[in-house]
Amino acid sequence: MTDLPTAIVLASTPGQSPGAIVLRGLSEDDYARVAEDVAASHSGRTLHEYAGHLRRFVEWCDGRGLEPMPANPEAVALYLRQLADEGRTVSTLGVILAAISQAHLAAGFPSPREHAAFKLAWKGLRRRVGAAGGATPNRKAPVMALDVAAMVATQPETLAGLRNRALLALGYAGAFRRSELVALEVSDVERVEGRGLRVTVRRSKTDQVGEGATKAIPFGAGEACPVAALSAWLDAAGIVEGPLFRSITRWGQVSSEGLTGRTVAQLVKDAAETIGRDPSRVSGHSLRAGFVTHALASGVSPADVVQTTKHRGMGMIMVYDRRRDVWTGSGL
Length: 332
What we know:
- 50% of the residues lie in helices and 7% in strands.
- It is mainly alpha-helical.
- The strands form 2 sheets. A 3-stranded antiparallel β-sheet has the order 1-2-3. The chain has a two-stranded antiparallel sheet with strand order 4-5.
- The protein starts with 27 loop residues before the first helix and ends in a 6-residue tail after the last helix.
């Protein structure tokens, strides 16, 4: 396989820093410093994904006698066209393009995506794939306030049931991503007398450098009150430090390990099914989408919604707005 002349993003493997960049001519110490900074530039998962896409691009170039770095912009466009013909969505193509672009920038080369000819080809490809249905995201239905209340009410009076109530109520009230929920620790939650909870999100999808953000969680009504539900769960589980939401063994013992994002998604699906909804139409993200949809439908301004969702801009709020979906078919 062709060796990239200046840099290559390496896959994350045991004993190696994810996303490390190998630069020719550098000493081992210099390389280690560069690798450390590169590894911190994105999440390990993102860098690992980029590495896989980049390696496949290099192999494709090798098979055609093309130079992968710096790559001819038309060659990149042709590569993406081939992947689109194989069924890749616009979203996936965008990730692949980002991987190729980041590798070029890391090597000191201009990104192919900035070339005029590539921009035109990319625009046309997105329109063509979109017209064929590839650009339409598989958006899950929102879980609205009444749904959350019903889902919470159906949870059993067990440790798992109490945990699920707290997770559903807090996840909705704070418009949390599932990755944010599973990362929360007891020390991140502060009770504010007469007001609710102050929750610190130390790192999120849009905050990879760990600047942190604070969310205000007000009291709610009935069993769906996030403050009461969380308190009940922590008291019953005897949790005073460490991960906020944890797995429970078959013997009813609370684990010291936190839940995974995949588990959160399954819990939301299971809870939706208990109230007669189609679990295939919801996901862990449905809580966040439901919060945004309900808030906008209630007349809350996008600027105020962002105060809870912590999006970097108001443009993404419209993507999360599922008001049309709610009235399509049978809702959820």
